[in-house]
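Sample log: Transaldolase.
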Amino acid sequence: VASFFISRTDSEVDRRLNALGTPEALALRGRTAVAQGQVAYDMFQGEFSGPRWAALVERGAQVQRPLWASTSTKNPAYPDTLYVDNLIGPDTVNTLPDATLEAFADHGTVARTVDADPVAAHDLLRAVDSVGVDLVDVSRVLEEEGVAAFVASFDDLLADLTAKVRSF
């Protein structure tokens, strides 16, 4: 799989949109993560289709599926199924926390949505860029934070294992 951490994108982009404070910027809050996922899926479809891909499948190639992670909303103003509802499609994987899974089972929308309007998704990302949010920098920041968090978790795991080994 290729993992995309969805809600973290909106958290960082929304912080930057709020700092800009213009009506145009504020109107874009809570929409970038879904658009980014939909654009990634659009690129995924382009990469894993056509005659070249068919020839690779004949030789045993398999699709590297997009995995939507961090699909619980961090902003309580957003619907609790926002990211799940808008990223449903073939060959995708979604990791859901229990609360989001329960919310989706209760009132989520089961429909193919991830590729409903790729043009609008691309347009939204251009709009975010046009108000002054650098999405390349957002990605860099999120990657650095994500790697640091995984390193810290790994270090904690090693410390726990070391303590257990020493206790024997």
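Observation: The radius of gyration is 19 Å.
Observation: The first strand starts at residue 2 and ends at 5.
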